[in-house]
Amino acid sequence: MRDLEEPGRPPRGVREAGGLPARIGALARRNRVALAVLGCAAVFSLLLAEVLEGEIMAVDRAAYWLIVEHLRADWLTPVMEGFSALATPTVLIALLLMIAAFAPGRRPGWCCAVNLALAAGLNVLLKTLVQRPRPEGFRLVEETGFSFPSGHSMAAMAFFGLVIWLVWRYEPDRRRRNLLAGVFSLIILMIGVSRIYLGVHYASDVIGGFCASLIWLAFYTRIAVPLFLGPAPVRTDAPGADRSAGAGAPR
Fold first, then answer.
1. Where are the domains positioned within the chain?
2. Distance set, CA 196 to CA 84, 160, 189, 207 (Å)
3. pTM summary value
């Protein structure tokens, strides 16, 4: 005897077919950080394998053709030098001091300082292990040390990436949150582009640096940040959030 479908409801096969993508989407949303870490780890591993073989990758040749051969201009070089300077120790220390001075309490400053110091140490370790030489023949500035992964790119993603994470969780105003996240994301991107433009890194160095720091941030924000700042407050504009819960600041 055939099952009778409830009037007005889609047939069972249609419901099941429509429900599977929804369940997969919900599962992906719940595990988006883990998926991002796996994706970054896969990209980093592929780049590392190519670097260890000593080959110049297609992405490096394409970036050289686009950024070095076609974008370089006298007026643009100082701009790129300015973006690159945003990830130097002097500027980053100054930004850390600003966070310590203006953030509520001392913990946000310590949280950002420890993150940056550990990410820098990780970069030194990776460069020492890989020992990829820097590009030769088209540098606009002089740099020493090894090339993979880019130290500026790792520092930019670690520092400004953590700032984005903090803004996204502690800034209650949606427009300001989106604006700040967009501005800091653009800064990260332009720091990476500037290192290719100035001829001191391959594109694979920059991408590898971004991936390494994103993996690092996934663990740091999960393990270390709650120790410094406690659990993040519930935003009242988040889906399903308790409207009576305010968005507090770290102390």
1. 12-229
2. 10, 19, 11, 11
3. 0.82
